[in-house]
Structures are given as structure tokens and as C-alpha cells.
Records
---
Amino acid sequence: MQVSEIQVDGLRTDDGSSLFPLILQCEDALSLDGAAVWLTENSDSLCRKAFDHGAILFRGFPVQTAQDFDQFIAAFGLPNFTYEDSLSNAVRTNRTPRVFTANEAPADVSIFLHHEMAQTPIFPSKLFFFCEMAAQQGGATPICRSDVLFARLKRELPQFAADCTTKGLLYSHIMPAADDAASGMGRSWQSTWKATTPEQAEARMSSLGYTWEWQSNGCLKVTTPRLPAVRDLGDGRTAFFNQLIAAFRGWKDVRNDPSKSITFGDGSALDKAVMAKVIELADEISFDIPWQTGDVALVDNYVAMHGRRTFTGTRKVLASLVAS
Ligand code: FE2
């Protein structure tokens, strides 16, 4: 099996970092079974490359359906992270036991850069995406190296970087009483906490260190325990591992106001001008995955953030998460 590294416009090598993302092109049309054997043999090295580069885009592999994608992922031999067990805010639908639709928020809603579930104490180590059908227009998945970003923040916004490191973050949001698919954060409290009664939800929240307030309309306002804003990657790199940008820019729906969704861990507010600079720096070093139908991406969730651009037409991108 012939796989080669290719380059496309816009690849990043900020501050001398390894190419972001790494793109691997399958050069010979082969069966999915053959590709799966190759993936299994190279699983360790591919995972190391994903950690080093932040993400790998696999192009030209024989993956066409959700079942194919499931087989592609299974070949890596990594532990599955289920949506059911996660505290994700998004509404999702499973297509296979390990494959689900990526956030089903409407086409005109941007999903801003974030590390998957970094706003909760339980997060996946990696994500796989599969483009089952590319959108007519738009719909790219922007990805951003958080280690590169944090190095820039330390240089350009040293006080903010220090506050992130020492104070951590608190996230608040209001969960609906029933799934609301019109929102990027519309997962109900019952589904999130796997509860049918408020008492069950409270037991789960308290075991995880959350605080909460019930709303008169049956919704639930929750605040996380203090969560880290950065993560030591163990090799000299530190990642800006959080949901700050997404929460600050986009945690907005009929129930939620982004200006109230996030504070430093001591309750102090984030400075708007500083956040504008953080967002600008992140946008500057982001790469838009230019989805082609059949593409698969492996994103190391500790190293790279991801989001979703708005789009027109039908866009089918499936996702799967890997446990730590
Ligand atoms: Fe996500």
C-alpha cells in the first residue's frame, strides 16, 4: 500500500512547528480491508504523528459510508469514548455505536474553536472526522494548534497567559428540559446527566463538583468546578486546552448569553479587548480543512482545537471520539 505525504495551500508551520496538519494521501485504490491492515500496523506511529503535528488528514482512502468509517477507526485499536457517557453540550445522533453526526447546529451557525469537551472534567484524547458529503459551499473545519497559540500568548499577552495558568476557568450554561436541536448547546439536562429526575441529576453534578440552579421553566443552570485552562503536553509544549474561545464567542442561544458563560477560576471577568486579541491570534494560525467527500481527519484533542465554518447545501460530517 502506497501512502505519501502531500501538501496543499495554507498548511501552517508557525514558529518552526511541524507541518499542520500532516496530509497523507493513499495513492493506490485498494480495499478497505487492506487499508485497515495498514492502519493497524501503523496505529502507534500515526498517533505519535497526530500528537506531534496536531492533526492528520487522510485523503484517497476507500471510505464511503458510516460503516466504512467505523472500520477505519476500529483498525487503530483505540478505546471508544461514547457520547452517552460524555457531558457534551451538543445534540447528536449515533450512526454506528462509535460514529455519530458532528454537531447538528444549523448551517448558518459558526462553531468556534475549542478542544472537545474541555469545558467538562471528562474529555476525549482524540477525534476522528469523516466527510460523508462535502457542503456545496463553506463548511470547512478550522483547526488550530493550541501549543503554538499558547507560546504566542505567553509572548504577546503574558499577564493573560499567567492568569490562565494559575486561575483556570469556570464555565456556566443553561441546559434545556428537552433536547433542542436548533442550538449548538441544546442537549437536555436529562440526557447530559443520564437522569430522569432532578435528584439523579443533582447526585451526578455533585459527584463531579458542579454547582447548579434550577430555573422556573424546568431548565437547569450549571457551573463547572474550576477547570484548567492549559495542559502540559509532557514534551516541553503547553497547550491552551480549554473552551474559552467557543464559550466567549458562541455560547449563545435562546437560553444563554456568552458574556455570562465563562470567567477565570476565581470568578474574575475576562477582558474583552484581551479576548479579541486571543481570537485574532488563533484565527491567524488556523488551517481550514478543505473537506472532500471521503476525507478522514484525526485530530489530537490535547494539541489542536477545531470548529465549524458556516455552509450552504447539505454537509455530512461524522465524528468519533477516542477515550484517554
Ligand atoms: Fe467539537
---
Amino acid sequence: MYRLLNVDGRAALEDEASWFDLADLSDDPTLADPMAAVARSAELHDLSERCASTEPGGPVAGARLGPPVPTPRQVFGIGLNYRAHAGESGMDLPPAPLTFTKFPSCIAGPHDEVPLSGALVDWEAELVAVIGTEVSAVPVDGAWEAVAGLMLGQDISDREVQLTGSPAQFCLGKSFAAYGPTGPALVSVDSFADPDDIGLWCEVADERMQESRSSLLIFTVPTLVAYLSSVTTLYPGDLIFTGTPSGVGMARGRYLAPGEVVVTGAEVIGELRNRCVPGRGPLAL
Ligand code: ZN
């Protein structure tokens, strides 16, 4: 078991609410790079056991946490992957994972500010699966082994940009700067009693907006990994935003405003806290 953090740009492991610099723990300076750490996630189980006999770098509370996986090569998003969310969106259930891209430059940390690109910006609490091993055409029953762990993610979405034109193209409306807060930790799969049944929620300005469990995913994490890897090679550090449950703003006619704080939570993983600030919209054409 391990919890991988990004503390001030360096990979760290979390133990007992403290962080431990991974390069120091391992005596391997190359493991300071969070992307190197994800690519060697199999070693993190053993390294995590060294924390108990090592002086910590400091408490996790108050540390400057960045995204555990700051520069993924590929970031997949899955649309309409909870029945109740497809229902509130007035959409049919997809016959296969409805896949789009969040461009990797939108990935942000668990406490970063989110500059709003307009008046119709929405929240989407999601579990994010992080690939640990390069895989191609992995079978469903071997797919969890390709996953380094799970994080929380916010698939922040500018609905106006997302739904412009026909057919609509999701990628840009979900890729403004900081529209992909992630973290707070990358939590190994064996940390969960059942990795296919994790509670997650979202609060906006202290109001509970979303609450569900990943056991209600239409396409499970192993199915997503198997399906995506049947098309494209998956690489260590690739992210899969697995889809959001019901309760988004679009279905409520209520969107994010500057000053509001979005708290995204999940069992075992922890919480993201992201404050919305004024931002810049797309070029008017
Ligand atoms: Zn989403």
C-alpha cells in the first residue's frame, strides 16, 4: 500500500499524515520526479514501509501539494458513465465508453485556484484511474494490474464551449487552464477494501451537490482500461477520468461563480479544495 504525493514538485510518500521525500527514502535522486515515481509504482509498496523508521519531511496538512501526476502523456475522459447522470442529462446510455480528451495542460493540483472561463462552468467529481504499466489490449480480468492507483479529479467543464456546434466536441470546453484538479494523493489499488466500490461526493459553496459510489459505474475501471487499451497503447501516468455521477450544475441550472470553493471528496483518497476565481473565456468569433 502507498499514497504518492507531489510536494512542491517532488514525489513524496504519505504515511501517518506526514510526507517523506521519495528520493531521500529510496536514496535514488531520479525518483524525485513524480513521473518517474509513477512509472516505478511497483517499487512504492516496499519504499512506503521505510517511512515508519524515517524522519518525515513535514505534515501533509499545510504542504504545497501539486498534482500527483503532473504531466501525463494522455488524459482520457469518459462521458455518461453513471446511469443517473445520463438520465439528468437527457442522454441515452452509451453502448461503449463515450471517450473524450482533456488536454494534459489542464491538469492542476488539489488546492489550485480554478479561473472560470465563463458563466456556464460546471463541476464533475470523478475517480481518476492512473495507469502504472505500459499496456496494449489488456484483458478485463488483468486490467487492475495495469493501474497504479486511484485519485480524485474534477472534470471542470465550460458547458457553453463544450456544447457549441453539432456534433458537439467536448475536448476544449474541458481543457481550460486548471480545469483538471487532481489528487490529493495517488492511492494504490490495494488500499481499498473494494476498489470497485468507492464513495465519492462534491460540495459547492458548502452545499452537497453530488454523492454516489463507483459500484454504479456503467463501465468499470477494468473495462475502461481494457477498452481504451484495445485502441491505443496506455502509458505509465496516463489518466482516465472515469465519469461523474448525477448532481452536476447543468441539470440544476446553477453554475460556478468566482469566490466559490469546490470540495471534491472520496473514501480513502481524501479531498480536493479548489477556489474559483475570475478567468478568461475563449476568443469570440
Ligand atoms: Zn466528466
